[in-house]
Structure formats: structure tokens, C-alpha cells
Design a protein that fits this description.
Helix content is 50%, strand content 12%. The protein is α/β, with parallel strands linked by helices. Among the domains are: 252-418; 434-513 and 546-559, Elongation Factor Tu (Ef-tu), domain 3; 563-599 and 617-667 and 705-752, 3-Layer(aba) Sandwich (Rossmann fold). Helix 14 runs antiparallel to helix 16 (301-333) and helix 29 packs across helix 30. It is globular, with a radius of gyration of 32 Å. The two termini are 47 Å apart. Keywords: Calcium, FAD, Flavoprotein, Membrane, Metal-binding, NADP, Oxidoreductase, Transmembrane, Transmembrane helix. Residues 55-90, 156-191 form the EF-hand domain. It holds the Pfam family EF-hand_5. It is a multi-pass membrane protein.
Length: 754
Amino acid sequence: SLGTAAILCPPAGSCTMSVGEDAEWLQWVTKQFDSIAGEDKEISLEEFKTALQVKESFFAERFFALFDTDGSGTISLEELLKALSLLVHGTEMDKLRFLFQVYDVDGGREGAVVCQVPALSLCVGGAGSGCIEPEELCVVLQWCLRESAIALPEQRLRDLTFALFEAADKDRSGSITFEELKEELEAFPEVMENLTISAASWLKPPAAVERSHQARCLTWAYWHNHRATLAFLGSYTSINLLLFSLAALHHASRGGWVMVARGCGQCLNFNCTFLAVLMLRRCLTWLRATPLAAVLPLDQHVVFHQLVGYVVLALAAAHTGAHIANFSRLAQQDGHHALTQYLFSALPEVGGLGGTASQTGLALQGLLAAMLAFSSPCVRRSGHFEVFYWTHLSYISVWTLLILHGPHFWKWFVVPGCLFVLEKVQGLAWRRAGGLRIVEVNLLPSKVTHLVIERPQSFHYKPGDYIYLNIPAIATYEWHPFTISSAPEQQETLWLHIRSLGQWTNKLYEYFQEPKCPSPGPKPLSRSLREKRHQCWAQVGADGAQLLANTGCYIDGPYGTPARRIFSSEHAVLIGAGIGITPFASILQSIMCRYRRRKQSCPSCHYSWCEDLQDEEMMLRKVDFIWINRDQKHFEWFVSLLAKLEMEQAEQEPGGRFLEMHMYMTSALSKNDMKAIGLQMALDLLATKEQKDSITGLRTRTQPGRPDWSKVFGKVAEEKRGKVQVFFCGSPALAKVIRAQCEHFGFCFFKEHF
């Protein structure tokens, strides 16, 4: 058996289907029915619930009751095909009538399913009374909210019900007829468009079909968007081939094994030095402010560091293997030394300081293998960061052994090595200057720790920069990178928002949980962070104050990120997923500060003396900010900041669209889900009436489901506000999707890397 869910799910890769695909799908359903249904060739309610894969059973029961036309308590193949054929091939009105019947839940025939809802108990049968009462609408909306993982007060639910009922009940009769619902739906074009979608898409949303990576690589947009990376990789490969060839040809008279060993050795001189260059973070941050930033892939320096690390290990293995093969040949030819002597004894003819090239080479091979093994993500993210940290510190031993092993390595290493030492000395000087005090802590939903740290007077940074943070009370030697979420214009403190994803971040959250903060009653999401901090720590009392007083930290940085390019963009699209909003929190605050500066005018004559000036640090004409969250609670992290930005823009330019916000909640039923049509209409109506979103309290309406990137970027392209650059911070999987869309529209794409 293929499982119960197979009967209602279209084959993999299908989407909104054509007429031919619909017919094929119905045939496929027929074939699967025999293997899924029991001997009686009927499907029970429980099998139907599993097939729909819904979070709650209410809508599964409604669909089942409507499909079960004979009221037998099971669905036959004939009943199923008849219902699906109507939804697949039926007109827009057929589908709308089915939606009306789903909402008309007061059917009263015998055998109907009873839906238990607090304060309301309605009979969920098949055909209802022919009109929708307020109580019925309230039940449906409540189940929509539950399936969307949206928690609203009971009064808010009543407001939603009243908003939709008042709009749809045209004749004020106290109930909604089919004609009235149809008339109201026509005011929502997107909803009417969704009614044309195939029934297969209603019953199970299709998976997006992503264009193959191979096909994308052949497009001009892909090459244009990756030109710096591809040019770098081409140059890097060419340099290695050139170095290998020159060294190998220079030793051609000594045999093939020596040619391979010397060629790999020369490449190792370059690559072991280049490893250090790629981690000169302060130098790389300085380069971001130069014209070289446009041609060098500075954003991928950590990725290239990892790549070069793999190349070093491969070259070292080839170098060692070639020397061992050559030593074995020499031992057989002259017989003066055995192979073990070549490997483990100091012999002048072998090379190296004091003839120790073999011993230092074997030690280097072991150290490099250990560093690579303990640098893997499974080690770093499984609670063993200190193993990675201490094995990676062996780079000091590696460089020392390389100087002893290769007579020419020091020539390659002297300049980068000095820069590396200077950066480390500067970092140590910061730490020797004394620790910084954590002045406030706020524990946010989804285990996010908000740290407020005193800002040193000499600490200067750009919006979107990040620092390395060390808190000895959590782990003495661990340093972790976090984006600064406060704007540079905030002089006294630094903000960090840290989500608990690993061992160190979980320890941090638990450490500050020790002074238990009494759980207050539900508050609106827009409550300010400062208000929450004062309420929380005031209740904690002396214990909490003592904990903060004893908690110090050290910072190393700041270091630049791709976000520094935002202010030189014309049309910037900022996309944050979850905690990925943190770099944009700093950037949005700084953008609005510069925007206010541009709008300064004389209070008497209203002359603007900054408007016509070209601000070299602010070329932005338009900013689109997109924030994608899993559920309602995640919006509490920065909703107060976003509300402030909305108010500032309204004061500076009423009706202005310089900064547009777009919020998406992925757990909510999307607009192309038939079950959610009523809820989304109610939310839209109430938001229009109150000028406030029911989920976040912002003026910006929170959209359900995931963004349709083709529509989002299509709208951006239509605005023609200048060259579009997209900046993303979030999961790698989503980054691939957005990068592909950027290539399609010809937008530049930048992703945060640590």
C-alpha cells in the first residue's frame, strides 16, 4: 500500500494542473483507491483525516461530511470521484458553493460529526441550513486561527467575526446567504483567483519545482551575479597550476616522483600562506571601503578559507606520498639507507633544518588532518566547540613546522604573517583594556537573548557589522560571532540578539534565566523592549542586579559584512528569515536616521537644505524590507522597532513609500488554501478598518504563508527605482531559492556569511 495520504496527493512535482493533468490525476486517484480502501471499498473518516494531513480535524470532518453524500459514514470511490470531478472541472461558482457549504456548519441530519468548541457546540454535518449565522462564522474562524497557529484574545476573535459578517450581510438580515458571500468575495480579486486553482492544490499544496542548478549555471545572469567568485576561483586555480608546473619542470631531471613532490610543495607554500590571508578580518573589513570590494569576493572569505583548507590537505597528502615513493626507490637503488631511515632519521640529503624534513613533514600531515577532522560542522555544532577551538590553535605549530620544513616558506609568509600577528595583538589589546559590562538582559520568545552592552568610546562600526563575543562566565575560551543589532547612532550601548541554537547560546539563555522573571499576563506585541526590561528586572530584585554586576564580556571587532553595500544601492531589498533580521535592525535604524537628515527643513520657510545634496553615504531611493517568521511569537523580537520606524516615516512623509515593510508568517494558512479564505478576508477587513494588523499591531498587514518570490520581485522590477540589490540573512536553503530568483530578474544578490 502507498499509504492513505497518497490518494489525495498529486504525483511529485505537480503544481496547478492543466485540464489534461487533472484528468490524469483523477485516473491516478482511481488506481490508488483499490490499494488504500478496505475490502468494502470505502474510506473511513480517520483515513480521510490522514489523507488531508491537516493540523486540526475540523476541516477534514467538513470535507468528509460534504463528500459523504449518502450519509453512510464512509466515502465510496463513486462519491469521491464525483466530488473531486466537480472541484476539478467545475466552474468558479461550483467551487464557491462548496466553500459556502464548508462554512455552513449547522447541518442537522443524523450521524453528523459534532465539533466541540469552547462556548460553542455546533453540529458539523453535510448540507447546512443554506445561510451562515454569526455563531457558525465564529466557529470556522476559530478553527482557522488554530490551524494557522495564531493566538488572539476572545474579543479579537469576535471583532474578526463581526468585521466579516458586517461586510457580507448586505441586507442586514442576521445571516449570510450564498449570493451575499459571492458578492463580498468579488471585492477580493486574489481570493476569486484562488477559486480557479485545481482541487489538488486545495487539498495538498504542491511543492515548488526548483530549476536545476545545471540549467542556472548556463544563464548569463548566473555568471554576472557570480563574476567575482568565478574570477577568483579561476585566478586561484591558474596560480596553483603555474606554481606546480614551474617547480616540477625545475626538478625534471630528478624523476617523476620528485617533480610531483616539489610541485605540490611549492603550491603548499602559497596555500598555507593564503589560509592566513583569508582570515585577516580587519584587513578584509578595510578592503570593503576600497574599489577592490567590487572585484574581490570578500563576502565569501570564510567559504574560501574552508576550500583552501581542503586543498592544503590534498596537496600535503600528494606531497608526502610522492616523497615516500621516491625514498622507497632510493632505498632499493643505492642501499645506503633503509626507507625507515629516510622517514624517521635526520639526514642532510633529505632537506629541512638539520635534515629533519621527513619528521617535520609527517608531523605536519598529522596536525593538518586533525585540524580538518575537528573543523567539521558535526563537531562544532554538537557541543564540542572547544575541541575545534584548541585543535585550530595548532596553526601556530603548523606555521612553525613549515618554516623548519621548507627552506623558502618564510619568504611567502613574512608579510601576511606580520599582518596576522598585528591583528592578534590589536585584539589582545582590546581584551587587556578590560571587560565590558552587560547593563541589561531581555529574554525574548523562542529562546532569544537580547544583550545590552556598554559601548566603548573608541568603538566605531558600520550598520550591519558583527563582533566576536566572549563571556567568561559561559565559557572562558570561546568566541562567537554575532551581528550588532543597534545602530551606530546609538552612542552609549551595543545591542546583540542571540538565538539559542547551539551549546554556548543555550548556556547563555539558561544563565540569565536563573533570576526567574514572573510571567506577566498577555501583552500586546508592540510593547517596547525597554518597558519589558524594567518590569522584568524590577521584579527580579537584588539577585538579578547582582548577576548582571558579576557578568562581564569581551568583544573583538567590528568586522564588515555584505550589508555595508546597502547605502550605495539605489533600490535595496532586505530579506530576513527569523533571527536573520538582526543585521537589518541596525541598518533600518540608520537608514531612517539618514532619511530624517535629508528631510531637514527650515521651520519658517520650509526650505530643505539637505534634500538636493548628494549624500555619498546614502544613495537609496527605495527600501523594501521583508521579514519571514515561522509563527506569531517570533515577531515580538523587533516589532517595537518596526512600529517606531513606521511612525517616523508617517511623520516625515505621510503616505510615503521610501520604506515598505512586508511581513510573512509561514505557519498561517496561505491565501491559496480554501480553508483560509474567510480568515484572510476578516483580517484584511479589520486591518483596513483599524489601520492596524491583528497579528503584530503594525500598520503593515502580515501575509500568510511563504512569499511568492516571482510576484515579489516582479513588483520590485516594475517600480523602476534604480539598480536593485537584494541582501539576505537566513537559512542556506532559502538563500538558494532567492538567489535563483535574483538571477532570473537580473538583481544582485548578497548573503551574510560568518
